[in-house]
Amino acid sequence: MLRSIAGETIVVNQGSSHTDMTRIISLNVTARLMWEKLEGSEFTLADAAALLVSHYGIAEEQALVDAGHWIERLKGCGAIIGE
Questions:
Q1: Under a CB-based contact definition with an 8 Å cutoff, are residues 10 and 25 in contact?
Q2: Does the pLDDT of residue 15 top 70, yes or no?
Q3: φ/ψ of residue 9, rounded to 5
Q4: Does pLDDT of 12 surpass 70?
Q5: 28, 52, 57, 60, 70 from 74: Cα distances, Å
Q6: Where is pLDDT greater, at 14 or 51?
Q7: Could you report the per-residue pLDDT of 20-62, keeping only the tens digit for each?
Q8: What angle do CA 9, 71, 26 make, to 5 degrees?
Q9: Which has more confidence, 77 or 44?
């Protein structure tokens, strides 16, 4: 779940009794866009990268790298589950 606190957007993994508050991450504008567009759906790395390409017009190779970092950060704090 996204929360805005003091001008920062953070991801909070609510509903879990084992939430580790040290693993909450702050989202920049791009990460928030991706979260808002992909939240609640099953998506692939390619889907996330395509969103970056369509919104920012960056090269697909760079979008794949950037989307991969975003996915790994969210997995690391338990905000998303995936392979």
A1: yes
A2: no
A3: -105, 125
A4: no
A5: 13, 17, 23, 21, 6
A6: 51
A7: 555 667 888 999 999 999 988 999 999 999 999 999 999 999 9
A8: 20
A9: 44
Place of tokens 């991801």: 11
**Ranges of each domain in the chain:** 2-76
Model confidence at 2: pLDDT above 90: no
SS3 call for 11 = strand
Q: 42-49 long-range contacts, Cβ below 8 Å, gap at least 24?
A: 45/71
d(CA 47, CA 1): 20
Which of these, 33, 35, 41, lies nearest to 1 by C-alpha position? 35
Determine the residue type at 5: I
Q: What angle do CA 35, 41, 45 make, to 5 degrees?
A: 70
In the numeric block, which tokens belong to residue 45? 């790395």
* Under 8 Å between Cβ of 27 and 10: yes
